[in-house]
Fold these 4 entries.
Entry 1:
Amino acid sequence: MPHKVFVSYHHYNDQRQANHLRYYYGINNTLIDRSLPEGLDSEDDDYILSVIRTKHLRDSTVTIVLIGSETYKRKWVDWEIYSSLRPYKDRKRNGLLGIYLPSATFTPARLEDNIKSGYAVTMRWENISWQLESKIEEAFKNREKDYLVINSRPRKMRNG
């Protein structure tokens, strides 16, 4: 059964892989492209988090993080992961799938916390053709394991 998936990534460096993912695997509206712009026009963190949850993540059930050379530095990636891990009103938290791109260096810290706890699932970009569907399903099923979620570190306040 397909799941609606939100894709989080470093736009400048990893747009080509995100486009590939959407083009080849975005059938039946299973991959949602509601990525955040580089900045939201507000100084109110609660408002920004609300926009991420209600506008960008609204009906997704799994968040894919494309892990490239500088993904770990990106504020919005961190905030998307943070919001994905928080239930909101009648919306459950998202499952989490990290996909290591060939350019990957460091894993975003919040994602790494959840890989170590067993909540987040990972795979390599090179295996996408045969592993993507099963890894999305595994991440979806992990949503029932609330006790594994680690979302306590402070949110990134800037890139870098």
Entry 2:
Amino acid sequence: MQAQQIKHPLPRSAAARGTRGITLIEILVVLAIIGLIMGGVAVVAFNALARAKYETAAKDIASWSESVEMYRLYRGECPKSPQDLLAAGIIKRISKDPWGSDYVLTCPGEHAEFDISSPGQDRELGTVDDANSWDEHLGEVPEDG
């Protein structure tokens, strides 16, 4: 009798099967691609958040303007502060701007019958990122903001 060779049911190594594992370079390339995608998403999300805050400030200023007009219609005078609007029952609460600062009401105003301002992201009045009732670009994100 001749000796028969016994075939093993499984190959002894992954190379024998014709497959190979993932190399470190491949993993690093995939991580770099994922990082680039996440960076792009973060930039878009940050810009959308900034735009939404300025649009919210513009809507708040428009609402405050209507409240001041109503106060002037009923009282015949300018409110000296947001507390006057609250005391008259025209507004229910004094809200803050999207950055957590108080809106500034000046009546009579320097630019119109009354001025309403938000200090913006830097929380300082008189800077480029302020949202002002007299600004023709109200609601747009400033170039430097």
Entry 3:
Amino acid sequence: MQFPIAGAQGQLPGTALMVEIVEVGPRDGLQNESVRFSTAQKVALIERAVAAGARRIEVASFVRADRVPQMADAEAVIAALDLPWDVTTIGLVLNARGAARALATQVKELGAVCVASDAFAQRNQGQTSAESAAVAAEVIGLALRAGRGAQATIGAAFGCPFEGEVLPDRVVALAEMLAAAGPREIALADTIGVAVPAQVGALVGRVASATGLPVRVHLHNTRGMGIANAWAAIQAGATTLDASLGGIGGCPFAPDATGNIATEELVYLLDRSGVAHGHDLERTIAAARWLGDEMGRALPGLVSRAGGFPMRAS
């Protein structure tokens, strides 16, 4: 199934700022859902996101099926995709074994992950924080040598559910270690949704300065700070933000971690702020509503309920 591709939206005359949105609903959004999505449903979700304007999209993770059952069909999803040439598909991998699986598919970019605290790293990946960073650097190298793209994410960068506060110096040191491996960007993940705008802005600035790489930000809305944090990240120079249609998502290994910021809410924010982003709001809302119908429940995103503004005449 193919859909018309949306044109760029959300730029006011005379503005030059551009923010890239990475759609993470098909991976980070679905991974915590108890109701299994079929391969066909995942492909339909990806196609709708692309039709709304997504050009980088997390399509799967190559992890153990017994730990994350929703991602058991990663290879089948990627094999079923027929997307425009300019869409970058991303596969999350946690180790060399996952990288080998990903590189056996046509996925264009590998997402490596390390974790900023030892306690969370042990629960998420069975490693210490330093060990997770070394493995992430190895994954980046494997991807680059295979001619694929590579990105790196630091999980629990703003706080750990088990250890509490995470020192910014620790995050910066991890970012420098990852940057030496050559990823396209460093992502800071508020995995459990504890960050506030001042904290986000400060850490984005420090990591960008320390690494010289673009900074991507992955935000969860657990405490209602997600969109405010997104704006703080943009003001601090973040060039890419993750978001999930309908605001679905969560981490299976982080207690009480709720969904990502909703793609339609980020698009609305950027539209009304005069920031270019390449997505169409109405199509994004339609995709989120379709996803809610497929899940049989109301999703967390508010803009998909209220609609855009000014309202279009019916």
Entry 4:
Amino acid sequence: MPVVLRTPREVDLRKVGDLHFRSRASAYAGFLPPEALNFGSPQALGEYWTERWRWERDTHRMTLAVDGDELAGFTYLGPSEEPGVRELSAIHVDPALVGTGVGKLLMVDALAHLEPRAVLWVLEQNERARRFYERGGWRADGVTRTDPIGGYETLQVRYAMDLEGGNA
């Protein structure tokens, strides 16, 4: 069955937490210590996404990529701290499906909902993700921040894209 995109139902959010946990652990395994990767749990992230979606569903957009009953990936986007800017705050793909086109499918969908200017944050050390975004037309804009993951400070790089006039 081909992967299709759809909006989440309440029952999907536990699966979102599980996939988020596994995706984060896989993507960051080369540069974050195991205790940071094990922060939280699939259940805790399921509860986090359930609660977050409950409060933000009117201002944010979540899209699921599903293959039958299996969750293949998801995106989450909404307003940025900057006026007139939308932020892609999450894109996660099942680690077994990285490189299969699921991430690209989710990104193309997200871009259609991010006009006129979009930003995202990526860990500086996450070279695979940075290459993925750069191939999609995103560019690091020189802004950085630090943010903890599992008690470890991480450096994040902001990427931006100007989508006005369809310049994706």
